[in-house]
From TrEMBL:
Active site: 241
SUPFAM superfamilies: Trimeric LpxA-like enzymes
One cellular component term from this protein's GO annotations in UniProt: membrane
Protein name: UDP-3-O-acylglucosamine N-acyltransferase
Protein family: Belongs to the transferase hexapeptide repeat family. LpxD subfamily.
Keyword entries, A-Z: Acyltransferase, Lipid A biosynthesis, Lipid biosynthesis, Lipid metabolism, Repeat, Transferase
Recorded metabolic or biological pathway in which this protein acts: Bacterial outer membrane biogenesis; LPS lipid A biosynthesis
This protein's encoding gene: lpxD
Lineage: Bacteria, Pseudomonadati, Bacteroidota, Flavobacteriia, Flavobacteriales
GO biological process, one term: lipid A biosynthetic process
Length: 342
C-alpha cells in the first residue's frame, strides 16, 4: 500500500512542508529511514537525524524549525508521537481489512453472522453461534456451540473458543488464545485418586478487551469467569475458573491467577506474578514483576516480593539483604571481641 504526503496530512490534520506528492509504502525509525519510508521525530535527542534521514516523509511537531536543509518532506502536527500512533492504528486497520468466507470452512446451519464478516479458511462455527457485524475470524479458529461474539471483534489464527462463551464488542483474541477450556477442578477420594469435577459454567469477556497470544481463560465450575470492560492481557497468561478481573486492569506476560480470585479495577500487574485462589484484590493495586500474592489486597496498595509485601518495605529490606554478608562478618568480629574480652 502506498500513501502520499497529501493523504497522510489529511488523516492527521497536518501541514505539509515539502513535496505533497511524496509517496511512502513502509514505516521506519528516523535513523533507519530510506526512500519510500515514513518516520517521525518527537524526542529532541534524535533531532540530528532529521538532517540525514533518507525517509521520504517525516512527521514533526508544529514547533519544529529546521536550522539546516532537510531532504525529507515534513508533515507538521500538534503532537508527532500521538499522530504517528494514530497513523499506525489506521495502517493496521487498512492492512487487516478483510471480508468474505474462505473455503474450506464449516458453518453450522444454525449459526448466524452479521454483515462484512471475515471467516478464514478452516474456521469452524458450531451450533447456534451468533456473530456480530464486521467480525474477523482468521484461519484455523474454532468457535464452539452457543457462543456469542460482538461487533468489530477479531479472532486471530488458531484461536479456540469453547462453547457458551460470550464475547463483547471490539475484542481482540490473538493467535493461540484459548477461551473456555475446563477449569482445574479435581476432587480426591479416600484412596488419593482424583476425580474430575464437571466444569459447566462459561466465560464472559466484555467490550474492548485484548487477550494476548497463548493466553488461556478457563470456564467457571458454576457461573462465569468474567473479564470486564477494557482489560488488557499480555501473552501466556493463565486465568483460572471463576476469576473476575475488573475494568481496565492490565496484566503482563506469564502471570497466573488461581481460581475464584477477584481482581479490582485499574490494577497494574507485572510479569510472572503468581496470585493464589479465593482472595480479593482491590482497585488501583500495583504489583511488581515476579511477586507472589497470597492474601487479600486493599485498594491502592503497591506490592513486591514473594510473598509480596509493601513496595517501600521491600526496597528497604532489599538494601539490608544486599548488605547481609557484611553484617554477618561484623557480627562474627563482635562475637570474637566479646569472647576475647570475656
Amino acid at each position: 500500500m502506498k500513501f502520499k504526503a497529501s493523504q497522510i496530512a489529511e488523516i492527521l490534520e497536518g501541514t505539509i512542508v515539502g513535496n505533497p506528492d511524496a509517496e511512502v509504502s513502509e514505516l521506519a525509525k528516523i535513523e533507519e529511514g530510506k526512500d519510500g519510508s515514513l518516520t517521525f521525530l518527537s524526542n529532541p535527542k534524535y533531532t540530528s537525524y532529521i538532517y540525514s534521514t533518507k525517509a521520504s516523509i517525516t512527521i514533526v511537531n508544529d514547533s519544529f524549525e529546521a536550522d539546516q536543509t532537510v531532504s525529507t518532506t515534513l508533515i507538521k502536527v500538534k503532537d508527532a508521537y500521538k499522530a504517528f500512533s494514530t497513523l499506525l492504528e489506521y495502517y493496521n486497520q487498512v492492512k487487516l481489512r478483510k471480508s468474505g468466507i474462505e473455503q474450506p470452512s464449516y458453518i453450522s446451519a444454525t449459526a448466524k453472522y452479521g454483515e462484512d464478516v471475515y471467516l478464514g479458511a478452516f474456521t469452524y462455527l458450531g451450533e447456534n453461534v451468533k456473530i456480530g457485524k464486521n467480525v474477523k475470524i482468521y484461519p484455523y479458529a474454532y468457535v464452539g456451540d452457543n457462543t456469542v461474539i460482538g461487533d468489530n471483534s477479531t479472532l486471530f489464527a488458531g484461536v479456540k473458543v469453547y462453547s457458551e462463551t460470550v464475547i463483547g464488542k471490539n475484542v481482540t483474541l490473538h493467535g493461540g488464545a484459548i477461551v473456555g477450556a475446563d477449569g482445574f477442578g479435581f476432587s480426591p477420594n479416600e484412596k488419593g485418586e482424583y476425580t474430575k469435577v464437571p466444569q459447566i459454567g462459561n466465560v464472559i469477556i466484555e467490550d474492548d478487551v485484548d487477550v494476548g497470544a497463548g493466553t488461556t481463560i478457563d470456564r467457571a465450575t458454576l457461573g462465569s469467569t468474567i473479564i470486564r470492560k477494557g482489560v488488557k492481557l499480555d501473552n501466556h497468561i493463565q486465568i483460572a475458573h471463576n476469576v473476575e478481573i475488573g475494568d481496565n486492569t492490565v496484566i503482563a506476560a506469564q502471570t497466573g491467577v488461581a481460581g475464584s480470585t477477584k481482581i479490582g479495577k485499574n490494577c497494574i500487574i507485572g510479569g510472572q506474578v503468581g496470585i493464589v485462589g479465593h482472595i480479593t484484590i482491590g482497585d488501583r493495586v500495583k504489583i511488581q514483576a515476579q511477586s507472589g500474592i497470597g492474601r487479600n489486597v486493599k485498594d491502592d496498595e503497591v506490592l513486591q516480593g514473594s510473598p509480596a509485601i509493601g513496595y517501600s518495605d521491600y526496597n528497604k529490606s532489599f538494601i539490608h539483604f544486599k548488605n547481609l554478608p557484611k553484617t554477618v562478618d561484623l557480627l562474627h568480629q563482635l562475637d570474637k571481641k566479646v569472647n576475647k574480652n570475656g
